[in-house]
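Dear support,

We are seeing what looks like truncated structure output for some complexes. This example has four components. We would appreciate it if you could run it in full and send us the complete token output so we can diff it against ours.
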Amino acid sequence: MATRGPRKKTAEKPRYHHGDLRQALLEASLALISEEGFGALSLREVARRAGVTHAAPYRHFADKEALLAAVAEQGFRTMTARMKERMARETTPEGRLGACGVAYVLFAMEHASHFRVMFGPHFTQPLHLGTSDGDADAFGLLVASITECQRAGVVREGEPQVLALTCWSLVHGLASLLVDGKLRGSGISTLAQAEALAGAQTRLLVRGLGRSSGD
Amino acid sequence: MATRGPRKKTAEKPRYHHGDLRQALLEASLALISEEGFGALSLREVARRAGVTHAAPYRHFADKEALLAAVAEQGFRTMTARMKERMARETTPEGRLGACGVAYVLFAMEHASHFRVMFGPHFTQPLHLGTSDGDADAFGLLVASITECQRAGVVREGEPQVLALTCWSLVHGLASLLVDGKLRGSGISTLAQAEALAGAQTRLLVRGLGRSSGD
DNA sequence: CCTACCGATCGGTAGG
DNA sequence: CCTACCGATCGGTAGG
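Here is the complete output from our reference environment:
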């Protein structure tokens, strides 16, 4: 017994069943925010939900901000992927531009916790935002779409970044209002309603962005 | 001494020097959010800043949500007033519509803490939002402006609420991105820059909202 | 990845 | 409006 105990203690005890505590912590964070709100997010509660003691997360994240940065990065990757998927189904430049915006709004509704972390007032430092990483560069995708529309002659000349910022404002505003529940009084709550609304708003704006004889 | 003590105790002791602890608590809340971020807001710290013990706020607010509701209501009043002021300077319906949106964005920048409380994911109950109070009904003002534009023939037919929601999305998105510091990388930080940007975006959208021969 | 511990803050209430 | 108190949670670290 004396020789068996110590040997087994270090050999047979499985460290973490899932094998990927880091990912488990990210998922626990999202579930927590979605169920209890952002204010309830603490490293201790996240650890609790992931089934480890409150000191374990520090093996993977220096602090709460580092955890949130990882959540945000994952969110930008997913959002960019959704945008690409939806744009790929379209056959015209303006169709792709609209799809880009609709995907943004749908992502926000389907991943509200991700959206809150990505665009909330957290983060003391800029959080590269994916400008260095194509798979997470949602804004770059939008700018490219605008440029494509300009080349096709369906959107006016001008700095694509400035026009893109206008598109971003529109869909970000709608997404924020939806995620924060400000449109419940207007009877908008389902994904399908949000999709229709985002499509209508996007079309109105693209119309304003178009070339006109008088401009 | 035996008769003097008790009498004076209830008569001469000033309760609260400012005379309006309620207002002092609202101001302390805004200062706290603006200096330390929303996450740092606690009733205790608010009380501390107002110079009273942490039990005092409960004389004015049942809990934190009640305090925040009062902050939000004050914010909606101020925002609506700013919109009216700026609209009054315009001479055309479309000018007033644009001014309405620009005022929204400027209010957000100048009163970021108010804006965060007003549109954040707090509040378990709807928070009347001023639909019953004309002095705080910013959305009603926007709808009225849209209606005026329709009557003047500068905005297409259609449910004014739906068109108003599109305008709201645009300015709410720009305001949110600015308040949450997401446009610092784009070099936009001053009030004047925000005003110019809001004006340009609003004009693009109003153009899209206009009547066209093809629609 | 865990146990055990630190100092600190919090919301809320009793009772005056 | 204050004092004194409650139970609970938190971020973070030592040390293994």
